[in-house]
Structures are given as structure tokens and as C-alpha cells.
Amino acid sequence: MALLTHWKDSAPYAGTPIAMGEVTDPATGEVTTTVPFASTEDLDAIVASARLAAASWSTTSLSKRTEVLFRFRHLLATNADRLATIITAEHGKVHADALGEIARGLENVEFACGLANQLKGEFSSEVSGGVDVHSVHEALGVVVGITPFNFPLMVPLWMAANAIAAGNAFVLKPSEKDPSSSMALAELWAEAGLTAGVFNVVHGDAAAVGHLLTHPEVDAISFVGSTPVARSIYQRGTEAGKRVQALGGAKNHMVVLPDADLDLVADAAVSAGFGSAGERCMAVSIVVAVGEVADPMIAKISSRVAELKVGPGADPSSDMGPLITAAHRDKVASYLDTTTAQGGVVVIDGRDVFKANATGGFFLGPCLLDQLQPGMAAYDDEIFGPVLGVVRVSTFDEALALINANPYGNGTAIFTRDGGAARAFATKVSVGMVGINVPIPVPHASFSFGGWKDSLFGGHHIYGPEGFAFYTRSKVVTSRWPDPATSSVDLGFPQTR
Ligand code: NAD
Fold first, then answer.
1. Ligand 1, atom nearest to 451 Cα
2. Radius of gyration of the chain from its Cα atoms, rounded to whole angstroms
3. How many whole angstroms separate alpha carbon 179 and alpha carbon 38?
4. Residue 309 burial (CB < 10 Å; 0-12/13-18/19+)?
5. Which residue's CA is minimally distant from atom 34 of ligand 1?
6. Of 38, 281, 383, 388, which one is the catalytic site residue?
7. For ligand 1, atom 20: residue with the closest CA
8. Is 281 a catalytic residue?
């Protein structure tokens, strides 16, 4: 069995753990790795090393930083297959999907390679007689990233690439459920020549996070995870005077208008609903069928689901892997009984898959629910599993009102051939990321990612230009070089005219 360590000063750091966690292979149910949970002394030592490193890294030239980022990008690309294997062994997603996660993380590193452009300040000369003004974007210092289990490599890169490019030291507290890929990332940063202490990894659970949130040497917190935790992180972190961005959960609706191509719709709904076993914050969990589309659409979705193979993520013939833990699988499956009890219809029951599964893995087949309504648990809750629900409405306006009344606002999509309807939807919907005939509209790394309402707490979206804005603070310098002979006392407030 593998034993993990933390990562400090560009090297493994054992520390003095307060407990050991167990990491399971979800395809077999076997414990494969133990992970140390940091003591407060360990956390303090790692933050202290990051603080020291931040001082030198923030004054390292932009070209040297860019060089490190380019080398890291190359290492990430050439190690993609090995990294994907690590992700699959602990998360369970299929290898091809893990490669996709790496590709999207790589995109963030590529964006960060353009750091010189992102960190450029502005200059105005002669704002008043002989007075010039310029602005600079300075690093914050020590930034902590707290990440979820479902993208163990991509979400850390959403944060670390820009935070480090901007001149900060970064302390990653990955999910304790699949922490090994963060250690692989740490090794690649070191191999890329990053200054020791700039990228750190500390393992633990809520207790470690609680200590970091109020740590006097921590300047900012980036969090991605479930909404209740995101809300609490935002409240506790800002109370302690930190800059905080906290991205939460989701319930993403995909609207299907009567004019949509139903083969395209069914392909998209199945891919976005069941990819990564539905454990994506941008997964489609509700299809809103407008007018008469529900019955033919459900038939097309069902025929595609019948072709899906559920199995270990390491098996190239599997389309969908297991869920992260047995407890999560059982919770997800419980929504089928709740749906029937609350008046919904179970069209496809994925529990047959785990009844038939002999490997001990945490499998649940794709599930399709119909006739859902607000007020039913399967509609209201973020299930975070392979469960796709259908809500039937009569009009576009009803579909829009349903989405706008939902407390989450991460992603949404509309499927139609009507450009006017698509534009009206994109304009009026209260959701941060919108897809038009695109079911999972995760923005390219040159834009920023973020939901609205209960899907994000804080003023900044993550990665892209808003990432650089979050990880820097601006300073504005006003200067003049007057002739002392012309100087005089003037108690008036300085005017620029
Ligand atoms: P989680 O909230 O349980 O855990 C996220 C992180 O917070 C982990 O590192 C965990 O150790 C830590 N944590 C857990 N409970 C805590 C507590 N009480 N106090 C402090 N820290 C705590 O989330 P998860 O189950 O790992 O991930 C799935 C969730 O993440 C889903 O809700 C999903 O929608 C969300 N998510 C959101 C986005 C997004 O961009 N909005 C992206 C990925 C995942």
C-alpha cells in the first residue's frame, strides 16, 4: 500500500500527522493508499516555507517565471498518460475522460504562460502639470487552494497556474479522497525548476482547512467544492480578513425547444449527464423538455443509454466508471425511491448495474427520471451522480422561469435552431455560463469560469483574466519631479485641472 506525504520546499514532507486517511480504488473497493492528515504544526511549517518563497518568487523576473511555466506545460503534456492513470485509480473516471481533464488543465497553464501580458500595468502621463500616474499588479503573497475530488488535477491547475504566474506561493489542500495526482503535480513543478516553497501540498480534511482559513500568514483562499462548504469558507475566510473566492455546487438545466434536432439533443444529454458518472459540476442534471419533445427525446436518450458500458475506468471499453465512494453511490441511488414516492417516474433504473457487479466497486448505471418538479428531492438536490431528470414544460418562458428560480446558477444550455430564442435565453437567464447547442459550456482558459447565485461566493470568477485579478492587488503610483524653486505651501485639495 502506498503512503503519501505532504510537499514542502520542493520535497516530500512527512510531518507529524494527527490521523491517517484511506484512499480507495472505486473500481474495486480496495484501499490502495494512506494519506497523512496534517497537524497544526505541519500546516504552520508549510505556510512559513511558502511565505519565505513568496518573497523571492514575487521579485523573480517575468521572463524567468514564464520560462518555468513553459517547462511545466511541456512536462504536463508529456506526462499526461501517466497522470491520467493516477486519476483513474483514485477517482474512477475512464482514462479518456481523465486525459480530457488534463487537457483542460493544460489550457490554464498555457494561458498563464502569457503572464507578462496579464501583469502589465497602465501609465498616463501629464494627468496634471508634470504629474504622471502608473499602476502595477502585485502578488498577494501566500494563496491557499482547497479543491474537490471530482477534478483532482484540473481544478488545482485552475488556481495554481495563475496564482504562481502572478508571483504568489501556493498551498494546495487537495481532496483527501484522491490526493495522489496533486503529489505528481508537485514533482512536475519541481522538475520545471520552480523555486522551492512556491508550490506546496498539504493533506487533511475540514480541520486542516479551518486552520488555514484563519492563518495570519495566508492572504487569499480559492475554494471549489459543494455549496454548504463554499458558503461557510467564504464567511469564515472573509471574517478573518482574507480575500476569498468560493465556487459551489450546481443543478444545470438543458432546455430543449421543439425545433431542436433530437438526435443532437440525445447525444448531448447522454454525454453531459453520464460522463464522469455525473460527477461534474457542469454535468447536465435536468433536461427541460418544452412542448411535445419529451416522449421522442426520452426514447432517443434511452436507446443511447442501453449502449453504454459501465465498468472500471482503466478498461478502455468502459464508457462510465464507478462513483467515488460506496456511501455516495448509495446516496445517489436512494433518489430513485424518493422519486417514485414523490410522484416522479423512474424510466431507467441504474441500480441493476450494481446488483450485477461482482468486483466490489462503487458502480451505479445511468438512471433516467421523468415528470420531475420543483419540490421533489431529485429536482431540488445536487445529486452528483449518473441521474438525469426530465422536467416537462409548455413554453420557453416557463423553462426560463424554472431556471431563474433555481438557487444554483453554474451552467445551463439551450438546444434549438432558432437564433432569436437562443439569444433571448442567453440574455435573460440568471446563470454564469451558458451553452447554445453546447451542453457543458466550460469557458476556454482565456475567459473565466464562474457560476451565479449559490454556485459562487465572492466577487471573482476563477482562472482566465479574473484569476489574475484575484491573485494580485493593484497599486497606483502618482509621481512628479518638480523644480524645488517653484514649490510653495497650498492647503487646497490637489486639483488635476
Ligand atoms: P466538498 O465540499 O465535500 O469538499 C471540497 C473540499 O473541501 C475538499 O478538499 C474537502 O476536504 C474540504 N471540506 C469538506 N468539508 C469541509 C468542511 N466542512 N470545512 C472545510 N473544508 C471542507 O466537495 P466534494 O464532494 O469534494 O466535490 C464535489 C462538489 O464540488 C460538488 O458539489 C460539485 O458541484 C462541486 N464542484 C464545483 C465546481 C465549480 O466549479 N463550481 C467544480 C467542481 C466541483
1. 41
2. 25
3. 13
4. exposed
5. 249
6. 281
7. 206
8. yes
Centre of ligand 1 to C-alpha 226, Å, is 4
Q: Are 188 and 182 in contact (CB under 8 A)?
A: no
Among candidates 410, 433, 414, which has minimal Cα distance to 423? 414
Binding site membership of 319 for ligand 1 (Cβ less than 6 Å): no
206 secondary structure, DSSP code: H
Q: Is the pTM of this model over 0.90?
A: yes
Q: Given ligand 1 and candidates 101, 155, 175, 178, which is best to mutate, with the most ligand atoms within 8 Å of its CB?
A: 175
Answer yes or no: is the C-beta of 281 below 6 A from any ligand 1 atom.
yes
Torsion of CA 452, 457, 461, 462, to 10 degrees: -130
Burial 155-178 (b: 16+ CB within 10 A, else e): bbbbbbbbbbbbbbbbbbbbbbbb
Q: Are 50 and 169 in contact (CB under 8 A)?
A: yes
Q: How far is the CA of 225 from the centre of ligand 1 (A)?
A: 2
In the chain, residues under CATH classification 3.40.605.10 are 2-248+455-477
CB neighbour list of residue 426: distance below 8 Å, 6 or more residues apart:
414, 434, 436
- The model's confidence at residue 495, banded by pLDDT at 50, 70 and 90, is confident
What HEC string does 152-208 produce? Answer: CCHHHHHHHHHHHHCCCEEEEECCCCCCHHHHHHHHHHHHCCCCCCCEEECCCCHHH
Count Cα atoms within 13 angstroms, Cβ side, for 51. 11
Chain CA centroid to CA 497, Å: 48
* Probe target for ligand 1 pocket from 209, 282, 324, with the most ligand atoms within 8 Å of CB: 209
The residue with cell 501609465 is 123
Residues of the chain with CATH 3.40.309.10: 252-436
Q: Yes or no: is domain 252-436 CATH 3.40.309.10? A: yes
Are 242 and 222 in contact, with CB atoms under 8 Å apart?
no
C-alpha cell at 394: 409548455
Could you tell me the pLDDT band of residue 474, with boundaries at 50, 70 and 90?
very high
Cα 108 from chain centroid?
12
Q: Which CATH architecture has domain 2-248+455-477?
A: 3-Layer(aba) Sandwich (3.40)
Report yes or no: 128 and 496 within 8 Å, Cβ to Cβ: yes
Beta carbon of 209 within 6 Å of any ligand 1 atom: yes
pLDDT digits (tens, 9 = 90+) for 69-100: 999 999 999 999 999 999 999 999 999 999 99
Closest to 306 (Cα-Cα) out of 340, 353, 358:
353
